[in-house]
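User: I'm curious whether this sequence folds into something compact or stays loose and floppy. Could you predict its structure so I can see for myself?
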Amino acid sequence: MKRYGMTLMVVFGILALMGLLMPSPAPAARVVKIGVIYPLTGGAAAAGRELRAGAELAAEIANGVMADLPMTMAKNSGIKSLGGAKIKLIFKDHEGNPTLGADLAKKLILDDKVDGILGCYHSSVTKTVSAVCEQYGVPMINGTSTSPALTKRGFKWFWRTTPHDRWFTKDLFELLKGLTEGKVRGVKAVPKKDIINLASACEKTEWGSHVSRLIEGWPKNMDSSSENPSFTRQRRRTFPVRCTPLKRPART
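Assistant: Here's the prediction. I'll summarize afterward.
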């Protein structure tokens, strides 16, 4: 299911980039180059390889005709609005390094002349790569980096197709409350005393620093929020959270 989810997010990313490309007035089909920057080596290589496979599948669907698939992009050979232009993916390995990611983005834009960029899994790398794309006016689609700060910078050339960590954190506390009330299907009610103290371990990265503050501050923030007044006050008393930073990065 996780692998399917990653593949689906990449397909959405390819679709989004296709939608951002302007129709070509020339009848001759051209090649649309998309730079794809993921961690293909290092600690997150397994995730990077899955994302690469998802991008390759999306390009295969878009470039060919697969009438049996219930997807618009599978009904035509190439990008219809661009005269049947084919997608060419150019993969780069950022190794989990934000500085390297930015350098790779510059090379893709200046040397390979890509039309758009897809990536980068790690929020820290997405932050630097998206800044390069913003500088050069190249669209970037992200479907796997969940730091809320990424879409709060006022960028015109950066889009994200996945929910960010504020919503994941909200779902976490919704689940905890549902557990205590016996509302989780197939699970007996859990006494509040059994989950009254929570601990969260977050890495010291772009992603980890933001999600740590979200988890630690969520009960306090919700106490004064009108988003769900029926349980915010109770949540503040019931779910105190202690966050501990990790020495080694774990994910985005």
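Summary: Confidence is low (pLDDT under 50) at residues 1-5, 222-238. Residues 2-160 form a domain with the Rossmann fold fold (CATH 3.40.50.2300).
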